[in-house]
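Before relying on records like the one below, remember that each one covers exactly one chain. Contacts with other chains, cofactors or solvent are not represented anywhere in the record.
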Amino acid sequence: MDYYRISRQELGVGAKIPIFVLESAEEVFHAAALDMVNTIEVHNAQGKRTVIICPVGPVGQYPIFVREVNERKLSLKRVWFINMDEYLADSSTWIDISHILSFRGFMQRTVYDRIDADLLMPEAQRVFPDPRDPGAIGRLIDELGGVDVCYGGIGITGHIAFNEPEDVSAAEFAERRTRVLRIAPETRAINAVGELGGAIEVMPEWCITVGMKEILSARKIRLYCFRDWHRAVVRRAAYGGKSARFPATLLQGHPDARITVTANVAEPAF
């Protein structure tokens, strides 16, 4: 595990996933927002649709994205946002959209309600995985001709979306599709700290998530990391062995994946 001690200056050298370092979280969020906007602009100019898998975490890019869309008068009419995941009240029901943790509620309040109505994509193109029909995401992606970009972060267990570690082969895990699953205790704990002031007993135990199959199928994958504990997570993802026990390592070998981090994350884990 010597990779945990890789210096800021050496971070990225010999990495199995390219790593880019920016100074601050604000710069990371700005880079993510501009990547989204520029991708849509290019596709609009070519008369093509844009299909994006997008997260609620990180979220700092969204206010910048909304501002750029409105200022540039950028049409989203041919854009599909497929959100990665959502918390469930039980093993089969979304939490209510008004719940403080609802990703659906977040996207509505923070993104869709703030984009000029004449630019906003139709509601049918704002998609969340549904526990009543998990296979709908895969069918939609096939119908649309694939995913152009998947944006996201990396969780404490190495999860992307809510694809928690499993004791299976990397090849088997890479075939996991959209599904309902129980959230790992480590993920519930760190999310409770970040979102609920440590009230872990309030954290949902179930979620629905797009699978590694859908994520790895994206033509581009862009991950953004800015928290202190991302120092270790990023290093294990980019330098550790490819394994379902740390799902982010499955991006190793993807033809166009990269991780963008802050200068703080670039410092050694210990």
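The chain has a mean pLDDT of 98.
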